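Dissemination and training. As part of the outreach component of the grant, students in the summer workshop were shown how a complex can be specified as a set of sequence lines and then modelled as a single object. The example used during the hands-on session is reproduced here so that future cohorts can follow it. Participants entered these lines:
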Amino acid sequence: MRSTPKGEGAGLWTALAAPGSAALTLFFIIPLLLVGVFSFGVINSLGQPIIGHTLDNYRAVFQSYNLSPLLRTMLFTAVSTVVCLVLGYPVAYLAARYARRAGPLILALVILPWLVDYLVRIYAWQSLLAPAGLLPTALAHLGITAPQIVNTSWAVICGLVYGYLPLMILPIYAAVSELPAEVIDAGKDLYGSAPAVFWRVTFPLTRDGVLGGCLLVALPMLGDFATAQFLGGPNSTMIGNMINNQFTDAGSQTVGAALVVALIALLVLTLAVAMLLARRRVRLLAVMAKAGKPEPVAEPTEMAAAL
Amino acid sequence: MTAAARSDRPGNARRPWVLWAITVLVLALMLLPVAVVMLFSLNSQSSLIVFRNVSLTWYRTLFHDGPMLSSLLISAEIAVIAALASLLLGTLLAFGMQRGGRAGSTTANGMVFLRLVTPETATAAALFLLLTQMKITLNFWTIVAGHVALCTAFVAVVVRSQLSGINRETEYAAQDLGARRLGALWLVVIPQLRATLVAAGLLAFVLSFDDFVTTYFTAGVGTQPLPLRIYSMLRFGVTPEVNAAGVVMLAMVAVVLTATALGVVIVRRRAVGRTRIDR
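and obtained this result:
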C-alpha cells in the first residue's frame, strides 16, 4: 500500500526520534530545570544542597562584589564580539567576493587553528604575550617597549576574539556569497560612493549573517572560563569562573545554581536583542543552526582539496 | 558565477588592497599560535623564547609518561563511543524533526536549538548537579553521557539540513515496489545520506575528542582524558610537554579528518561507477 505524503504516518517518525529526545531531556533539560529549583535551595548541615525556598542565593549573586563579574562578562563579550565583527567582516567579504580560488583556502586557514586543542591555543597565547615571551621580545628588538598584557582584561579579550573569530567569519561568508553582485553594481551605477554603497546596500543585505555570526560568537563567550582563568588576572574574572568556583572548589552549589540561572538570563537577553534586530527571524535561526560549530567537517573533501 | 564573469565586474578593477591587508593580518594572527606550538614542541630546551636545537625531547617525555598515554586512549575511547551513540540518536532525531507530527517536531527542534545556544558551562554545571543529586559517582560513563547530550544536537542539525533536501518520491517508489517504510528508509534514504552521516559522525568525534568544559564537569577522580590532563599541566606550571601534547592531538584529528575525506571520495567514486554499470 502506498503511504500518502505529509501528515499521515508521522507517528513513526516521532517514535524514531524518541531515544534522542529522551537523551536530550535526561542529560540537558532535566539538569537545567534542577538548576532552577536548586537556585532557591539551601545548604544543609552536611554541606549538601537541598531543596528550599530562599532568595539568598540570588542575593549572593547580586551583591556588589559579585555584580562586577556579571557586568564584566557582558562588557568583555560585547567588546570581543565587536572586534570579531570588525576583523571578521573584511576577511569574509574578501573570501566571498574577491578571492576567487583563494576563497576556500582562506576559510580553511581560518578554521585550521581549531584543530589545535582549545587549552593549548590559550597556552600558546600565554607564552606569546608573557613579559619575556615571543611578542614583547620581538617588539623590543624593534625598539618598542610592549605594555604588560598578560593578566589584564586586554589579554582576556584577545583570547576570546582568537577563540571564536571563525564562528563570525563563516556565516558572514555565507551571507556575502548569496548576495547578488548586481545589487552592489546597481548601487555604484547610481553614483553611490564606496562607503555609501557598503552602508546602504551591502551591510543591510548581509545583516542576518552578521547577527548570526554575532550570536555564534557571543553566546559561548558568555560562559567561557578557561580564557579568563589563564590569560586574565584577579580583576578579570567572568561569570563562568564564578560558576566553576562554586561547583568544583569549596563553593556552594546553590549559589552556583543561581549563577547558572543568571548566565541563562544573559543568554536570553542576547538572543532577544538579536531577534529584534534581525530582518527575518526564521532565517536567523537557520543561519545559527547551520554554522553551528567548527565544521571543517561539513565538506572534508573540499577543504582537503583547498589545502 | 564563474571566475571570468567575476573579473568583468567593474568594481573589481581596483584591487581591494585594504581588504587583503586586513585578511593577511588576521590570518597571520590566527596561525601564529599554531606555528609557535608546533615549533616549540621541537625545541631542545624548555625555553619558550629561545629556540636552540631541533629535538624530540618533549615527545619522548610525553610518550614515556604512562598516564599521558592512557589519557590519550581514554579521550579516543570516549570520542568513539560518544560519536557512534550520538550519530545513531541524532540521525533518528533528525527524522523526527523533519517528518514527525507537529507537536513532536516542534519539541525536538526546540530542544536541539536550546542545546546549541546554551553555553556549555551552564549545561555541564547543571549535569554535574543532577549527577551529584542522584548520588552517581562520576566516572567514564558520566563523561560519555555529557558528550552524547552535546553531540546529538549537532548531528541532528547536520543530518536534518541534508534530509530536508531529499526528494521523497524515490522512497514512495520503493514502497510501491513492496518495501516497508523502514525498509525503504534503509534501502533508499540512508544511502543518499551516507556522506552526510560520515561528516556528522566525524564532527561528533572531533567535538568530543577536543571537549574541555563538559569533560571537566563530568569527569571523576579516576578518569583523566587528555584535555583535563592538559588543564592540570597548565594549572601547575608551564611545560613544553603541553606543546607536544597539542601537536599529538592535532595530528590525531588531522589523520581522522583526512582518512574520512578520502573515504568519502572513494565511496562517491564507487557510487558513480556503480550507476554507470547499472546503466
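Residues 1-7, 292-307 of chain A have pLDDT under 50 and may be disordered. Students were then asked to discuss how this feature might be tested experimentally.
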